[in-house]
Amino acid sequence: MPKPLDQGSVVELMFQTHRGPVLGTAQMLVPITSNQQPFRFVALPESDQSTLQAAVQSALYRNLDEEEWIEDFRAAVLRWNPYAWRRRLKAILASVTLAALCLGGVIYFFGVH
């Protein structure tokens, strides 16, 4: 909301959790800041209660270290470019070949004369 609602306003509230959407009737409480306002449910269907409870419980028991590692791994996979290694390998092989040819030419030049 662009600005807080009046304290005591009754609203239909819906939000998305990682376990699914939650829809219920809520009463708005005293705003904390210009864009944060707590609420309390005054009516919440049983199915939405179950969804909310499952979301809260799973959030409490999450393995944050493991999730952080998974997110880092996903980001690395997205950044990975297999063709970059091919270009580097080609550049290294070209450099080694050029160096060998130059060294061979020097040995030939000084060895023959």
Report on this model:
With 113 residues, the chain is α+β, with helices and mostly antiparallel strands. Helix content is 55%, strand content 19%. The chain has 2 domains: 10-63, no CATH class; 67-112.
Summarize, please.
The protein is α+β, with helices and mostly antiparallel strands. It has helices at 46-60, 64-79, 82-112, and strands at residues 10-17, 20-28, 39-43.
Note the run of SSEs as H and E. EEEHHH
Tally of DSSP β-strands: 3
> Strands of the biggest beta sheet: in what spatial order?
1-2-3
The separation of the N and C termini measures 88 Å
Average of per-residue pLDDT values: 84
- How much of the sequence is in beta strands? 15-25%
Classify the helix fraction into a percent range: 40-55%
Biggest sheet overview: 3 strands, antiparallel
Low-confidence stretches: none
Judged by helices, strands and strand pairing, the structural class is alpha+beta
Count of helical stretches: 3
